[in-house]
Design a protein that fits this description.
single chain, 77% helix, 305 residues, 0% strand, globular, mainly alpha
C-alpha cells in the first residue's frame, strides 16, 4: 500500500532533519574542545542514558519492564553494541576536536559499503556485481589518500569499521532506536559514571570545576544524541527503507563542508579525487540497492519443444 502524500512528506522532513542534525554535530563538539574527548564521551553516555530513560518512562513504563527482561543472548548483544558505539563516539569526538573533520566525513561515507562487506564476511551474504564494483571504487578512494600522503586514513577506517560492526550487532536486538540507545547506554553507563566521579574527586573534571556553559553543554550531549534518533524513527515509520537510503549521505556531506569552509581543513586535489571515487561508489551502491542497476539474466534459448 502506498504511503499517503502527507505522511510521506512528513517522513521526508523527519529523515532530513535527523541527518541534518547529525551532520552539524561537529559544531556542538567544538563547543567542548577544551574538555578531553574521553570525558565528553563519558558525559554523552551518562546523559543519553538519563534522557532516554525519562522518555521511555513517559512513553510507557511497561515497555521498560519488557526491555529489562531480555534473554541472555540479547544482553550480550546489548553490551557489545554499547562498547562499539562508545568507541565510535569517542573516535568521532576526538577527530572533530583534533582537526580531522574531513576524515570523519569520509568514514561515514564509506560505512554503508563496509557494512555490506562485513555482511559478506560474517553473515555469508552474496555480493552482486555492481556492489563489488562500488566496493572496489571506495577502496581505490582510500588508497589514493594513503599513497599520496604515506599515511592510512585510520580515523575514517576506524569510524567506518566500528559503526559497521555496531550495525551488524544491532541485527540481533531488533528494537526501536530509542530503546536501542537506552539499552546500549545502560550497558556502559556504570563505567562512564565511575570515570566521571573519579575525575571530579580528583578535581580534574570539567563538570563541576569548569564554567556553567561547559557544564550545560556536557549535560546537553544526551539530548543532542537522542533527538536525531527520535526524528529518524518517526521518519522511518512513514517512508520506505529504500527511500531512507537516499538521505543517508546528507550528514557526511554537511560534515565535509564544515571541515572545509568552517574549520579550514585542507581539501587538496588528492582529496577531491579520493572523495570522487567514493561518491561514485555510493551512487552505484545506492542504485544497486534500489534495483535500478541489476545484473541482466541470461537469455533463455527456445528449444522448440
Amino acid at each position: 500500500m502506498n504511503v499517503p502524500t502527507d505522511q510521506g512528506r512528513a517522513g521526508v522532513w523527519y529523515i532530513v532533519s535527523a541527518y541534518t542534525l547529525w551532520g552539524f554535530l561537529p559544531l556542538y563538539w567544538k563547543l567542548l574542545e577544551s574538555v578531553p574527548a574521553m570525558e565528553v564521551l563519558a558525559h554523552r553516555i551518562l546523559w543519553s542514558f538519563g534522557f532516554t530513560l525519562a522518555l521511555l518512562l513517559l512513553r510507557d513504563s511497561r515497555n521498560l519492564r519488557v526491555v529489562l527482561r531480555l534473554p541472555r543472548r540479547k544482553l550480550i548483544s546489548v553490551f557489545l553494541c554499547g562498547v562499539l558505539i562508545s568507541f565510535n563516539w569517542y573516535t568521532y569526538i576526538w577527530a572533530v576536536n583534533s582537526n580531522h573533520v574531513i576524515q570523519a566525513s569520509m568514514g561515514y561515507y564509506i560505512s554503508p559499503l563496509m557494512v555490506v562487506l562485513f555482511s559478506v564476511v560474517f553473515l555469508k551474504e552474496t555480493l552482486g556485481r555492481w556492489k563489488i564494483i562500488a566496493a572496489a571504487l571506495a577502496t581505490a578512494g582510500v588508497l589514493v589518500v594513503t599513497l599520496q600522503y604515506g599515511q592510512v586514513p585510520w580515523v575514517a577506517l576506524v569510524l567506518a569499521g566500528s559503526f559497521s560492526l555496531y550495525s551488524l550487532a544491532k541485527k540481533v536486538l531488533r528494537v526501536d532506536s530509542l530503546t536501542g540507545l537506552f539499552l546500549e547506554t545502560t550497558a556502559v553507563t556504570p563505567l562512564a559514571l565511575l570515570y566521571i566521579v573519579n575525575l571530579e574527586r580528583g578535581a580534574l573534571g570539567n563538570f563541576l570545576g569548569a564554567s556553567l556553559p561547559i557544564t550545560a553543554f556536557l549535560m546537553g550531549a544526551g539530548v543532542i544524541t537522542a533527538m536525531p534518533l527520535l526524528l529518524f524513527a518517526q521518519g522511518a515509520q512513514r517512508i520506505r527503507l529504500s527511500s531512507v537510503g537516499f538521505f543517508q549521505y546528507i550528514a557526511p556531506s554537511i560534515t565535509l563542508l564544515l571541515g572545509i569552509f568552517v574549520f579550514g581543513e585542507t581539501f587538496s586535489p588528492t582529496h577531491l579525487l579520493s572523495f570522487g571515487l567514493i561518491w561514485s561508489a555510493l551512487v552505484l551502491f545506492t542504485l544497486s540497492n534500489i534495483g535500478v542497476l541489476r545484473v541482466p539474466e541470461p537469455a533463455k534459448i527456445n528449444t522448440g519443444s
